[in-house]
Amino acid sequence: MSSLNKDILFLIFEELQDDSKSLFSCLMVNRLWCETVVPILWRNPWCYKNINYANKPYLFFIIACYLLDDIKEFITEGIKLPSGSNQSLLFDYFSFCRSINVNTINNIISIGSTFAYNQFFMQQEFYSLFMRKCPELKYFDMKSIKHQIFYFPEAIVRLESLCELKCNTSIDTSYFYGLSQYCQYIQRLIIINMDTKSNHGIVKLIEVQKNLKHFEWQDNFYEELFMNDDCYENVLLALEKKAESLNCLRIYFEYIENYDHTLLQKILPKFYKLKILIIESFFYFYEEQLEKLKIQVYHELEILNIGCNRLNLISSIIKNSGGCLKKLLFRPYNVIGSEYDSFNENSLKFIREIYENCPSIEYLTIAFSPSEGHFAEFEKLLKICQNLKLLLLIVYNNMDEIETEEMLKNGEILLKILIRSAPANLKEIRFGDDDLQFSLENLEEFLEKWRGRHALTIFTVGSIYMGENYTKLIDKYKSDGVIKDFKYFRYMDSLSYYF
């Protein structure tokens, strides 16, 4: 490693750009490594989830070192400037930076002073410095921002290069009007909705985008609130005009009335270039729009999650998906509840659509009846879909009451199928526990035969596996490296959510 030149080291460190712990270790090897790592660490230094930024005085020291002496004197009262803050820095750190995260920067600056005015003034000076030093701004998380940074002289040029923006609707609408003058080439727009009123500034910001590829909307209410009629409508109508460029759409609407249902269902077929479609809202498609979606073709679709809906709709989208689907997620019990009378037939068709149209599937949610035909088709799916890595599986008999003996028999059949036919890449299985149980003997036989494969992660909602005998068995195979992890969730929704 010591003989590698700087270009090779840079390529290696690029692969570690999200791993702050490894990058920090590389800093200490020698000067060459340090000089190579610093620009990567400081490209987006505010993004590391394992760092408590409010407890990192060295970051505050770096910011303070950039301040002019007269500014330091002006904010002396109540602020703790570090010793050595008049010394020059080893690197011009801000020149490497391509991002702003308002909350993180506020946390760092709060280290120096508890006075609101000093913090506000230092934040303002930081943005002024950043706009002068940063060659281009790529990522901007502006949640809770108080400074209208587009008024800084250099801001226009910096904002024109913005690729990703995260914001929330609690910010005044006029701020978004200001941004919309300069930020017209945003590719990723992520919005946290904190308000029940329509934010027309955000709508305007969407309208002016010329290359919007990724859009997320996440309602975040602390209680159920009544939404204004035009809150979702204006956003959806603005998005409709971006169908030519949009390839990722992720929506969670907390409160949807019939009108909003209809509008969302009406515009979905227009996003024909989607690679990712995630709708996490709790609603079902109406029959009229259901038929339109059934014939909709998403040739490039790779990830599909439409939450609460019917298997026949999901099967139709799969059939027309173009064979690129890698992740298919939904809430199994919502699907089961929506088509009680036709579940057996639709689940069989669903399995067939998967192995006929999704050869590259990696993450799969699947629900089916415990019949001989369903088990046979499921085994065929395992043999064909060799890229399968994660499986969320529900075996559910919606017709009759089922005895424990039959549940154990279903579990035995399923485990034997997995041993015979599970793809080599399969490393995580999540079991719902309605009509399925594993006896201690069958589970031990399964784990013993799993030896030599990927260490298996198992999640379940079955409380039976928390018993003493099961716990001893699981611990044994954990220590042997057969089981990587075993978790029990009380609720089925938790299995789906963390999937």
Helix content: 40-55%
Distance between the termini: 38 Å
Global shape: globular
Overall mean pLDDT score?
Answer: 82
Q: Provide the gyration radius in Å.
A: 27 Å
Poorly predicted sequence stretches spanning 5 or more consecutive residues: none
Instruction: Output the structural class.
Output: alpha/beta
- What is the tally of helical segments? 21
Strand order of the largest sheet: 1-2-3-4-5-6-7-8-9-10-11-12-13-14
The major pleated sheet works out as:
14 strands, parallel
The count of β-strands is 14
Give the percentage of residues in beta strands. 5-15%
Multimeric state: single chain
Protein name: F-box domain-containing protein
Organism: Rhizophagus irregularis (strain DAOM 197198w)
InterPro entries: LRR_dom_sf
In short:
42% of the residues lie in helices and 13% in strands. The protein is an alpha/beta fold and 499 residues long.
Essential attributes:
14-stranded parallel beta sheet, 42% helix
